[in-house]
Amino acid sequence: MTPAGPAQLLIVALVVIVLFGSNKLPDVARSLGRSMRIFKSEIKEMNKDAIESSEQSVKN
Q: Where, by residue number, does the polypeptide cross the bilayer (predicted)?
């Protein structure tokens, strides 16, 4: 699969603008950013818990 070129990215951007409208676009981007931040923090927490759990099992 080849990476998306500039033409494909432009088409996707235009479709997003048409679907959400230019007024809602900043809100959508902000919500997406928050969701990604929460997702990343949850992944870090899960990894931290897994490491602690494996360390506990090694000690026992």
A: none
